[in-house]
Amino acid sequence: DAKTTQPPSMDCAEGRAANLPCNHSTISGNEYVYWYRQIHSQGPQYIIHGLKNNETNEMASLIITEDRKSSTLILPHATLRDTAVYYCIVRGRGQNFVFGPGTRLSVLP
Amino acid sequence: KAGVTQTPRYLIKTRGQQVTLSCSPISGHRSVSWYQQTPGQGLQFLFEYFSETQRNKGNFPGRFSGRQFSNSRSEMNVSTLELGDSALYLCASSFSGGSTDTQYFGPGTRLTVL
Predict the structure, then answer these.
(1) A21 vs chain B: nearest CA distance in angstroms?
(2) What residues 61-100 of chain A have any CB closer than 8 A to a CB of chain B?
(3) DSSP designation for B15
(4) Do the beta carbons of residue B37 and residue B108 sit within 8 Å?
(5) pLDDT of B59-99, one tens digit each?
(6) Which of A24, A109, A37 has its CA nearest to residue A75?
């Protein structure tokens, strides 16, 4: 079973920031938080990952709470092409990637 | 760098047949994982190969098998196909499969079983 809980769907206006939450209250100290997204019928695309510090790359920012029990993926300026299912995954050493149902983000014009 | 490639992209088979899917990882990647994605069950892990050895296996029947070659290319085989095997089969590669290793996915093979 997935170790994360995400809202099933969210809407975001084009050009605004999209903030996607993820709960992982049972995360262990050596487990990383990964985010992927999947645009309809394509392979999942890696976005970002982190352990305990906030991370930023050209696609998004990842904010992890101090207790590491939750995180937020931020897409700073959402575009229509960001419409996708977003998966938050917790993974440790020797573990597989376990995908939950994710959050279906709809970016609206 | 070329991404993960999967062949064929689409496949139609009938019940009882067998099928072989192929995955070429990113150059330098030695770990290859396979996933099945269906509308009802979502993305489910099938197995992982590293250095030609199966390192991890998901909860699938023995009809699902795989192998990895010395050049890290991988194949998965499904024997005695059932209607429920209709799915998008995804392959992902990573450098070594470690906990900080990022997996990169291919476009998938869509298998339809009639």
Answers:
(1) 20
(2) 87, 91-100
(3) T
(4) yes
(5) 999 999 999 999 999 999 999 999 999 999 999 999 986 76
(6) A37
